[in-house]
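User: New here, any thoughts?
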Amino acid sequence: MLSDKQISDYFEQGYLLVENVITDAQLETLQNITYDFIEASKTVTESNDVYDLDVGHTAEHPKLTRIKLPHKQHAYFDEILRNSGVTEVLRDLLGEDATLLTSKLNTKAPGGGAAVEWHQDWAFYPHTNDSLLAFGLLLEDVDMENGALQVVPGSHKGPILSHHNQGIFCGAIDPDDPDFEQDKIVSLTGKAGSMTVHHVRTLHGSAPNRSDRARLILFYEIAKADAWPILGSNSYIHSLGQLKFWDDLKERTIIGKPCLEPRVENVPVRMPLPPAKDVSSIFKTQQFGGMKSVYED
């Protein structure tokens, strides 16, 4: 699927934009399912296991920050991960064995949909090695007006910046951190059906949606199978017990087979503790952790 140059660019720069990674028919199906979910959210009055509501959400004007775990809400979100051009991109970047960590469908509503403050995913879920990535499947055209994903090229090779505020994990960096090289920021704009990819240590964020158009991006976080969690979004496995854990691991294996020999490398780790009082989403972690916004006027 990917050219040798695209693969080398990803490992050198820490990000990639792949155009036309799914078919028109697949895109239309994903769009229809997503808008059905947004329509159904009109009856929801507070965030729940499916929806993370944005400020100002009403039945007349539904505003969501996120549909949670879409691959568990509708089978097609799981199917597109395992059997599409997306799968081939993952195979090119992670190899023949890979595991799903989590998914989310970020749905920045028109007219101010919430920003995602700058952070490194690695700060949320350190593993035994850093062969992990997140990808975003664009379900609508994305430009600067509706809140494109932004990255700092090469930051995946640098330090893990502090994501703490006054001793609490806030899930965002300090905009004044000298290692935050804002002059290098690149915006990943593209047409619906394209796919952004960023390394787990790449600094990234996205501004509010200031347009009159939706910004729908389907995100999945994926690990090479030999990367095992230390703490964070995948550490729930410790509460399952061995039998349930094994079933869960097999279910989350999207390419190849599970790996029972973790690869341990000398990678920088800072634990995401102590937690903010609400860690149900990155939006809540950043809000209740008291982060300092990059995007405030």
The chain has seven helices and 14 strands. The helical segments are 4-13, 24-40, 70-73, 75-82, 85-94, 242-252, 282-288. Residues 4-154+182-266 form a domain with the Jelly Rolls fold (CATH 2.60.120.620). The chain has a mean pLDDT of 93.
